[in-house]
Design brief:
- The chain is α/β, with parallel strands linked by helices.
- The chain is built from five helices and seven strands.
- Strands 3-2-1-4-5-6-7 form a seven-stranded parallel sheet, with helices on both faces.
- The mean pLDDT is 95.
Length: 163
């Protein structure tokens, strides 16, 4: 399992998932796209927990990401959640494009990165997820028939639950 993380609350969710996977004996590899000092406060707290567990965390390097994606069965999209208000921009667009070009199955947290949660439309390159775990309730944009292109199978999960 390869987990790609941005810098906001969605990254924090990705770090929680990484910790939970380790409890089940699955040690994921985490790729942190921004520098660790750019993380939001909540994401930073969860990142520090990951460090204490010794989960491998690498910085983003395009060539290495391509190699890691080739070796992964699953890639967890923890780049952007509901707060994205426009195109992802560099280097995130490159990461999204690499995820979509790989054979790894994508698992999006809350919403596929690049998708507008309110409209279900892409802002630009958008992760094409096989599964999306969304928290508390389906987002308004999920009702857009075109959103299924990016969502895959939607699972509504309790944010404080045992997902």
């Amino acid at each position: 399992v390869l987990i790609v993380a941005g810098k906001g609350n969605n990254a924090g969710d990705a770090f929680v998932l990484a910790r939970r996977l380790t409890l089940f004996g699955i040690v994921p590899q985490v790729v942190l796209v921004p520098a660790a000092d750019q993380l939001s406060r909540d994401a930073s707290a969860n990142f520090r927990c990951l460090e204490k567990l010794g989960v491998p965390v690498m910085g983003f390097e395009p060539a290495r990401l391509a190699q890691d994606l080739c070796r992964s069965e699953w890639v967890v999209d923890g780049l952007f959640g509901t707060g994205l208000r426009g195109p992802a921009g560099p280097p995130y667009e490159e990461v999204i494009t690499s995820i979509n070009a790989s054979s790894a199955r994508a698992f999006a947290l809350d919403v596929p990165s690049g998708m507008d949660a309110d409209t279900g439309e892409p802002h630009g390159p958008t992760v094409r997820a096989k599964h999306t775990a969304t928290f508390a309730a389906a987002k308004i944009g999920f009702a857009n028939p075109r959103a299924t292109t990016w969502l895959g199978r939607v699972h509504i999960v309790d944010i404080g639950g045992n997902w």
